[in-house]
């Protein structure tokens, strides 16, 4: 399967799409806000200890307090000379996931959180999960520093190897190499990209990560709480590190500064991959050139049509995501059971694809069309389990229940796509979803960029909803300034009170 990464960079927003045979398989977006703090390391201060929940709130310097569970607390501090051993279960198979969020913790079930930390105490905290909805960021005091070949775990002495490296001889070679090279009593997870690596390359990266950790320790000693000690790579560099280095064949970027940044990054870690990075210089926006805008829009829809005429409905609730399968316009050719089976099997592939693309996490309930034959139920279940093999996030699937439901869980790493790009609709008091105002501004930016190629006038009139007009005049004014410089024309904004929030019109003057 041919895979490539397409990166679109504009003012304060970067979009990364992983394509598999031309279709978006994974989609990432970064806007420089608090949703992009996963992997960051902070010096925090304990605000409140909650003994009844075995958790605590930590001030890390952002608007919303982070929280930490007792299991994520390192006993004795982050720089203890004899670190605690973490739980080894479910480790190495996930170390190459994107973005890197592998964290380890000692199970402290026998201890009370009040015995470990007190209010006002300072501690080192790494963001394991960014803020999602109304929930604050989840942090851990077991930091991890990912490199290309290994993940450094300063508060552990465990040595693990990614389960994606299946050759037992190679696994043993890598493990013995790490043990012989490590100078400190630190833990490491060997990543998939390390397969076949030479000792010198591995030693260089281990030394780099150790020096990075020592620098973080030094900052911790002198910095005030709360403060940022270490910032994770940008989404563009994370794509190069975790996608290009592990699975994609090519990376195309439409921004020269980011293109050069990726080349510099690869020059340090993997010079042989520099030839796989390409600068896009076409006049047409890069996502249009690869026909990706439609896929992104489709990933926000509630109703997804299947080729046969059936469809699926995806509903997000506070507790879980419900997915319903319907025959729709499909009537079949022979009998009802065959029609139902075909619709369910077609829905299986689309559901697995949408879960991965939309990055849906937590509890997922799938209501397939009821099948009378047990063997047909097993066909659908096995097909669904097989369709999820490509998904790097950890999933747990239960067989089809007597009510025709599949219950599953998927590890939640960040906000789902619909939450990242949309906001509650004020027209219907939150019953539906609208594109967020910021997303509308960026859509306008791209549409003007697209249409200006065929315009000859000296000015462009932009008619928008009054709230969007105000946003473009104030907070997002940098978009208009950037566009005017890019296209060499003045943009005049006209507020239209009768317009829907998402409606806009671009007119050549």
TrEMBL record:
One of its GO terms (biological process) is rRNA processing. Residues 144-412 form the RNA-binding protein AU-1/Ribonuclease E/G domain. Pfam families: RNase_E_G (PF10150), RNase_E_G_Thio (PF20833). Residues 424-507 form the RNase E/G thioredoxin-like domain. Keywords: Cytoplasm, Hydrolase, Magnesium, Metal-binding, Nuclease, RNA-binding. One of its GO terms (molecular function) is RNA binding. GO terms for cellular component: cytoplasm. Its cofactor is Mg(2+). NCBIfam families: RNaseEG. This is Ribonuclease G. It comes from uncultured Desulfobacterium sp.
């Amino acid at each position: 399967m041919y895979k490539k990464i397409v990166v679109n960079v504009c003012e304060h927003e970067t979009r990364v799409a992983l394509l598999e045979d031309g279709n978006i398989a994974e989609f990432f977006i970064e806007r420089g806000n608090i949703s992009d703090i996963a992997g960051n390391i902070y010096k925090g201060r304990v605000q409140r200890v909650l003994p009844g929940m075995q958790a605590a709130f930590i001030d890390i310097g952002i608007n919303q307090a982070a929280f930490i569970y007792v299991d994520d607390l390192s006993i004795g501090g982050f720089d203890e000379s004899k670190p605690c051993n973490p739980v080894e279960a479910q480790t190495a198979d996930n170390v190459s996931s994107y973005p890197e969020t592998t964290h380890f913790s000692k199970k402290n079930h026998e201890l009370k959180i009040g015995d470990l930390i007190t209010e006002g105490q300072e501690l080192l905290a790494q963001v394991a999960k960014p803020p999602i909805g109304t929930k604050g960021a989840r942090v851990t005091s077991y930091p991890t520093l990912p490199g290309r070949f290994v993940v450094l775990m300063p508060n552990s002495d465990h040595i693990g190897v990614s389960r994606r490296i299946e050759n037992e001889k190679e696994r043993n070679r890598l493990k013995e190499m790490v043990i012989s090279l490590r100078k400190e009593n630190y833990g490491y997870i060997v990543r998939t990209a390390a397969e076949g690596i030479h000792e010198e390359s591995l030693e260089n990266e281990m030394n780099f990560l150790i020096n990075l950790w020592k620098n973080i320790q030094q900052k911790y000693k002198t910095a005030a709480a709360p403060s940022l000690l270490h910032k994770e790579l940008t989404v563009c560099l994370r794509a190069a590190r975790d996608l290009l280095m592990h699975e994609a064949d090519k990376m195309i970027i439409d921004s020269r500064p980011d293109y050069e940044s990726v080349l510099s990054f690869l020059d340090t870690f993997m010079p042989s991959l520099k030839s796989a990075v390409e600068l896009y210089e076409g006049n047409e926006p890069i996502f249009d050139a690869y026909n990706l805008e439609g896929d992104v829009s489709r990933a926000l829809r509630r109703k997804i049509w299947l080729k046969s005429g059936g469809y699926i409905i995806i509903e997000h609730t506070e507790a879980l995501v419900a997915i319903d399968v319907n025959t729709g316009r499909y009537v079949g050719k022979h009998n009802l059971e065959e029609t139902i089976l075909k619709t369910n099997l077609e829905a299986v592939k689309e559901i697995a694809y949408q879960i991965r693309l939309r990055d849906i996490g937590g509890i997922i309930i799938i209501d397939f069309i009821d099948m009378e034959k047990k063997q047909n139920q097993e066909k659908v279940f096995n097909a669904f389990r097989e369709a999820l093999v490509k998904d790097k996030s950890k999933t747990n699937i239960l067989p089809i229940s007597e009510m025709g439901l599949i219950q599953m869980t998927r590890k939640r790493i960040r906000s789902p796509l619909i939450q990242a790009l949309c906001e509650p609709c004020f027209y219907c008091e939150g019953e539906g979803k609208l594109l967020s105002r910021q997303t509308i501004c960026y859509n306008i930016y791209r549409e003007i960029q697209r249409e200006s190629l065929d315009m000859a006038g000296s000015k462009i009139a932009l008619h928008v909803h009054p709230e969007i007009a105000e946003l473009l005049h104030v907070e997002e004014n940098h978009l208009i300034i950037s566009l005017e410089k890019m296209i060499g024309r003045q943009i005049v904004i006209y507020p239209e009170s009768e317009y829907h929030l998402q409606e806009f019109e671009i007119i050549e003057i």
